[in-house]
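[09:14] KT: can someone run the structure on this one? pasting the chain below
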Amino acid sequence: MNENFNVENFDWSVYNSDYKGGQKLVPNERIKGQDNKTKCFSREPYAQEMFNLLTDSKIINKDLVKGDCVAVTDITNVYDGQMTIELIGGLNMDIDLAREKRFIQLFGYNTVEEFVKALQDKDFRQKFVDQELVAFVIESTPTLKVSLWQGYVKMREEFMSEIASPSKAYVAKVYQTSKGGFFVEVQGVDAFLPGSLAAPNKIADFDSYLGKEIIVMVEDYLKDMNSFIMSHKKYIDHILPKRIKELDLNIRYNGSVTGASKYGIFIEFNEIFTGLLHVSKMSDETMTKFKAREYKPGSEIEFYINDITKDNRIILTEESPEEKKIKFDKFIEENKDKTVEGEVAAIMNFGVIVNIGEMSGLIPNKEFRKKKVNMKNYIEGDKLKIVLSEYNDNKLVFDLYTETKEEGA
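[09:31] RB: done, structure tokens below
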């Protein structure tokens, strides 16, 4: 909860449709798959979908059937070679550890007695549960029976299927670093998370990731290493189309610099997004610092979102929406139906960005193809004549100016 949250001013009747009075934070009872440790308070339309994705929960009713895989949420008791586990949804089951020797050996214990002794320690028990174990239903009638070992095997089978048809996200816990990435544990299965796939941008301090939890998807399986490869970037790509729709062009964002090029500064924000603050969109103060190379990875900067392209590239600006609209309207009034001179600011795969004074716009690819002009003929700083062709939503699109025979005569 936000530290600035004021409970006295919050309208609970709007927040909770089942509101009965009082100011207690109430879980959304309509979200299936909740237990005592995992609850959802959101009442947004996508709450169930996101709860399933982030918890990897299979919706549990009391009627489990053979072949189901269910998450273990707690170990409530350990006694005489047995332990009682709680499954997601609140169902309790007794496990005969003598039948789980292969599972116990995964954790370095040769005998049931050694394992039971270790489970007496509350901290060890909690760490053991935190590995997000999965139980596999081996029998549903007449008595419900589950297996942790087969749950482990089943998870590996699920991971294999996820490589070809990705649909689920998992929590990876980093327990060791290496030169190229991280050794992680996912649903009780050891895996490797390459540094290049662990974050949207380059990681400066690998050791800072020790003990960190990272949402991942299955990338690949290396048979020679007998190890699954996980990817946080794959997860980002999976949720990006949905999350990018939530961005607001009227909100001022805060982010951190991840790198720079001659075109501008790359800024990471909201954990998964990276945008470009182009030199044409910088304030005078930022431009001065940029030219002096004062911006380093990690430097904080505030900005607005100027545009989101069709291929989900995010273009940033320091102009507020109000400032931008005033300049936009003035430019349209002064330059509509006129030929103007633009300066090439950047050549992108979707077209050429041009600057016209303080304004900038796009000459799209299709315009160059139409006029049979090669974009590669231009470099940054080149001047060219252009005509305004489209203007809406504070976006300017230009055509290349072509002289007619009469004009050339």
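[09:33] KT: thanks! The two ends are 72 Å apart (CA to CA).
[09:34] RB: yep, looked fine to me
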